[in-house]
Amino acid sequence: MVNVAIAGGLGNFGRTVTEVLNRQGKHQVSVLGRKAPDTKDSQVSFISVDYNDVKHLQALLQDNKIHVVISCLSLTDDSAIAAETNLIRAANRSVATTRFITSNWGTPVLGEMTEYMPWLKYKLAAINELKSTKLEWTHFIVGYFLDYYGMPHVKTHLPPFLVSVDVATPSSSFTGCSMASPSSAPGEEYDDI
């Protein structure tokens, strides 16, 4: 059985990854997090971590014989990418850890896209850090989570994200998103579908 640690495994998306891997029963699943949960899930072990301390992280990965790290951290600010980078460095130094899945679950990461999607710079930084390691690594580009279209009728741990799509006129509206020139958005070539 492979020992898998999920960073952010009790968060929005991470909770789903944790539940699915645990339900499959093919892996020993542990959750890495800053603060222990209020309730204990007896099926998943929780490992309290300090993402600021690479040696601490390395020791935890080795002591728990973690083979694979799956990051579900929300890479949206400097502190989050610092945590991801330290976790990558610790995994690279750990004698037990051989694989790392970085927290890049939705959008393809291209450098030129960071101008209008600033959070992608954090994901790009994690990928560049992984390229300098001995780890086997990957990231999954799954696109837009269909959970958002099924809310509230499907079980999900994701928070609401309102998107209005009018297929007939091909137009869309993203709540909380403003672009000076929507025509500069990627995907403009698809507006005639």
Automatic annotation (TrEMBL):
Renumbered to this chain, region (Disordered) spans 174-193
One Pfam family of this chain: NAD_binding_10
Q: Write down the InterPro entries for this protein, in alphabetical order.
A: NAD(P)-bd_dom (IPR016040), NAD(P)-bd_dom_sf (IPR036291), NmrA/Isoflavone_reductase-like (IPR051609)
| Keyword Oxidoreductase (UniProt) | yes
List each copy of the NAD(P)-binding domain by range: 8-145
Gene3D superfamilies recorded? NAD(P)-binding Rossmann-like Domain (3.40.50.720)
- Which keywords belong to this entry? NADP, Oxidoreductase
Q: Name one GO molecular function term.
A: oxidoreductase activity
Q: Where is the composition biased (Polar residues)?
A: 174-184
Member of which family?
A: Belongs to the NmrA-type oxidoreductase family. Isoflavone reductase subfamily.
State the name under which the record lists this protein: NAD(P)-binding domain-containing protein
Species this chain originates from? Fusarium ambrosium
